[in-house]
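Sequence in, structure out. Go.
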Amino acid sequence: MRQPRRDTRGIVDPGGLLDRVSFRRAAPARELAELVEHYWFIDWDLAVPREQLVLGHPSVNLVLLGADGNPQVSAEVAGVVRGTFSITLAGRGWVRGVQFRPGGFRPFSGRSPAALTDRRVPLRDELPTAEAAVPAVVAAADDPGRARALDSLLRGVGPVASEAAASATALVERIRTDRTLRRVDQVADVAGLSVRALQRLFVAWVGVGPKWVLLRYRIHEALAQAAPAASWAGLAAELGYSDQAHLVRDFTATVGMAPAAYAAACAGPDSGVPAK
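Output:
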């Protein structure tokens, strides 16, 4: 069985977050693994609220959010967020989430995830048959039980297999792992498609275009390697930028501060990166 990734890519100032909350991942059932990246669980008990930034993956998420002592549970589907996403964690609360693989959500919903990009919609509006299974997820006593309940929830929706979904998923994974892919035309060549056909495939199944995916994974890598003594010129070359200034512009536009300032903020005794 494919195990969940252990990296923190996409979490802005991951050290500051993981020092304060319990964050875990779990693998989906084998028959769901081609469509679901992992399940993710967060619990917190904070005397001081924390505003957390996330630079998300090209993935749709199912998000269940609750607070201790409050019987109301927020159940939403969150599309790909092209900017940064901010959430304030306060008091005692939790999240139970499903991160679908890029291209993996449409087999459940039947429509392009582009309709969800930069949006959050109630679960009952997007996957109406899933809502009845939410109480079982909330009631589960431990992470294995939560994973089993989420497996049951997704099986109940009844995903429809698609070769286009599998193709989109494989191409996004190739972009994520292959540093030599730096331009859209290179990805199109790998796919055996024209640039226009590649763009249509990504919008229809991922929700965003391949150019955005290339940039997002570059910035994820820059976040992961950020340190006060980092060689930004060397990292720019490694990520395929023509010069350091180009990386700094992309990083600043995406994260909201220059790379050196971000690295210093994360290294401070009270680490935390302010929201944009």
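Check: Residues 191 and 254 are 28 Å apart (CA to CA). Residues 210-225 form the longest helix (16 residues).
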